[in-house]
Amino acid sequence: MKIGVRHLIFLVLLGGCTVGPDYERPSAPESPAFKEAPEGWKEAQPRDEIARGKWWEAYGDAELNALVERIDGGSFTLAAAAARQRQAEAAVRVARSGLFPGVDADVSITRSRSPAGSAGGVTPGRLTTSRNASLSASWELDLWGRVRRDVESARAAAEASAGELAAARLSLQAELATNYFTLRLLDVQRKLFEDTVAAFRKSLELTNNRYQAGVAARADVIQADAQVKSAVAQSIDFGVQRAQLEHSIALLTGVPPSQLAIAPRDEYSAEIPRVPPGLPSELLERRPDVAAAERRVAAANADIGVAKAAWFPSVVLGASVGYRSTDAAAWLTAPSRFWSLGPALALTLFDGGLRRGQTDAAIAAYDATVADYRQTVITAFAEVEDNLAALRVLEEEARLQRDALDAARQSLQLTLNQYKAGTVSFLNVVVAQTALLAEERAAVQILNRRLAASVGLIRALGGGWKAQ
Predict the structure, then answer these.
(1) What is the value of pTM for the model shown?
(2) Per-residue confidence at 3, pLDDT binned at 50, 70, 90?
(3) Are the beta carbons of 314 and 42 closer than 8 angstroms?
């Protein structure tokens, strides 16, 4: 349907209209204070632009620092997330192209034969050569804001993709750190078993000497020998777990497992970062998954406007200019020149419920993203609560475990003295040695859990406690 210039001017004046709801950040579950932390916390809001820094350096392990630094350049998982972010950024440029007119150039030379002219069909048809050179432009006026909403949606999706990239990076860093600490403490347990086996061998030697002297039973020697062999078998199993952790770290850094070797350490002590008093809730705003979820809501909100714009007519302004002729000599001359200019309006009158379905689908998608955002926020609060509680409880458990370990060592020494004096049987020694080994392993495992909880808290807070 053709429309006049005055109608076009009127439509252009409507160009500031944008259908669909303007975006407002949805409400999210509130937590004025955490049960496991001091007062001063407030509702999280996405502020993913705050710098995190190298949080893993707080543990004071140069080898851990080097391994984490390799993630950015080696992880294929991170490379895929980065590629998806670039794809989302390119989609913004694609959407923005709709705000500008499209210009096409066309040059063609065609040769054709017309049908025969006589009634009997004996007169041959005429050969004609047509030459055409033209420029054409078309521009859909964004009267109802469809293109602007599309750009808004693409931009929000790109920001969400950036948050997902940051979340993937943080997840990989936290997983590597947790695996590394577990590996190191497996080394400590392996050394612990080696020392224990050495102590068991001394007990076996002592028992055998007592048996040779006739003051100990043969059963004591067999029991001491079985204890040594059992401890040796358990120590071998650490090799399987350590190899698997080393392979996992290699995959996180993007290298084949055969190309990564982490030298064992007999001792390991890591500085566990402590949560400062009055931990501010603003740090929750740094969680990249919260930021990504909120941006997905903004994108879905803009998609509602795109769907609603389909209910309104579209106006396309078209123009073309060029030369067309069948005579080569007169092709690019003024008489062969042509041009056209004019708007066209199109409106769908019946679509069998297509637009209604698309609008309802967009609204439902928006509701789903709002629910996902709220779930992400409440999950963030729960993860911080979990790890704060773990750190608090495990710190107390570690203190009590140190006391239990000291008591087990004293108990073993007293029992050994009593056994040498012949006042107790070797069974008492076995029980005391087994108890000491269990207490020593428990202490190492508690340290591993404390390190894992500290990494979990850093991850839950979006990458650390200090906002740069």
Answers:
(1) 0.83
(2) very low
(3) no
